[in-house]
Amino acid sequence: LVRPASVSVKKRPLPSVRPDVDKYARSTLDGLTGIVYRDDSLVTDLRVVKRYADFPGAIIMVRPVDLTAIA
């Protein structure tokens, strides 16, 4: 998120405003359905962080699960 000019780092260091971080996660998972996986129920690990940045965007890393490490 781009920090609004009216919000200082001291006043609000993190973007604790709407939209909620879970909404970003859900929309991203939904957007990748049919492209990266057939259904977002197949996602087993997820880390979501909402921060201010100079340029808005998302970093998405998709990796296969190493099933030999689970056994």
Written overview of the protein:
The radius of gyration is 16 Å and the shape is elongated. With 71 residues, the chain is mainly α. The model has no long low-confidence stretch (mean pLDDT 90). The longest helix has 12 residues. Helix content is 23%, strand content 0%. The chain has two helices and no strands.
Number of strands: 0
Number of helices: 2
Q: Indicate the radius of gyration in whole angstroms.
A: 16 Å
Q: Could you give the distance between the termini? A: 40 Å
Mean pLDDT: 90
Instruction: Tell me about the largest β-sheet.
Output: none
How much helix is in the residues? 10-25%
Residue ranges: pLDDT <50 for 5 or more in a row? none
Which structural class is indicated by helix and strand composition?
Answer: mainly alpha
Shape: elongated
Tell me the strand percentage band: under 5%
* SSE arrangement, N to C: HH
Quick overview:
With 71 residues, the protein is mainly α.
Record keyword descriptors for this entry.
2 helices
Record the SSE blueprint.
Elements: H1 21-32, H2 67-70
